[in-house]
Write a structure and sequence with these properties.
Blueprint (H helix, E strand, L loop, with lengths): L1 E3 L2 E3 L4 H27 L3 H104 L2 H19 L5 E6 L5 E6 L8 E5 L3 H8 L4 H26 L9 E4 L3 H10 L1 H9 L2 E4 L1 H22 L1 H55 L20
Parallel strand pairs: 5-6, 6-7
Antiparallel strand pairs: 1-2, 3-4, 4-5
Amino acid sequence: MITVGEIEVDFSDPVVAGLALLGLLLLILIVMVMRSAGRSSQAAAPVLQQMSQLGDVVRGLSDGQQRLAGGLQTVSDTQAAAQQKMIQVMEARLADVQRSMTDSLHGSSIKTTRSLTELQERLATIDKAQSNIEKLSGDVLSLQDILSNKQTRGAFGEIQLNDIVFKALPPDAYEFQVTLSNGKRADCLIHLPNPPGPIVIDSKFPLEAYEALRGAQNPAQVKEATRLMRAAVRLHIKAISDKYIIEGETADGALLFLPSEAVYAELHANFPDVVREGFDARVWIVSPTTCMATLNTMRAILKDSRMREQAGAIRKELGLLYKDVERLGDRVGNLDRHFGQAAKDIEDIKISANKAGNRARKLDAFDFAEEIESEDVVRLTPKQR
């Protein structure tokens, strides 16, 4: 152990020993370097020259690096400017695209709204049509219920007949539900003049036989339905002929009104013999269309009859009218003569007025030369001959 001042150094400590050894080695190394420094000073001159050249190269590289850094900065600035410009262009294009998309979406929204509105209106129309169809179906079912009953079916035919007669004839030319002298009640009585006289129209509707004929599926059913149809129409013809053709009270015939064009067409197409039997019984079968035509003919007959009835009155009125026209002619002649005399008097008055005016002008101008021509005036000088 060695004491240096107040510090005690113990060489038995491995750390201290190591440090002492290390210091000794460094000391030896320093001495060796100092000895070799003198010998190598001459050899170090080329190295120093190379190191100087190396320094020049390093300075050149530094300048090149600075220039490269400036070029890189310029490139960086140019790239930044180009990038900024590109960003601005992209932003503008993006704004245009966004605006176009907004306009397109707005237009699409308007078109979609309009389409939805139109669709809603069409759906409302369809719903209304569906409601009308349902209502019509109910009405059809009600009509079928009406036609399935004989009494209501008869009322249906009478209402249709009444409507046709009301539209075709004047009110005083017909009556509904008229009781005849035999106690039978007719649906309608047309007051035609004699001949032919009042004619009856009665409504009949052989619906069951017609539906059986339409619904027949085999020859046997067709044959049976044909028999029923023929029998039903013949029964109606006989009933009308017996009840509503009364000698001396009604016309020598009557009309059977079928309130169905289909039944009328079927009857004339496939049952001509029944139609001929109706002619023989003086019962003419009419449909709504042919009934209207027949009533229009009756209206012409009524008009002609009424004109004949009023022929005497018309002739009397024509005579009175002729006398009035003659009297009017005389009065017009008198008035014309009065006008002629008045015109002559006015002309004379105009002549007198002109003369009076001329005299007044001469008097005003003291011009009397032409006026003193009378033989009663004594002239101062002889008259020149």
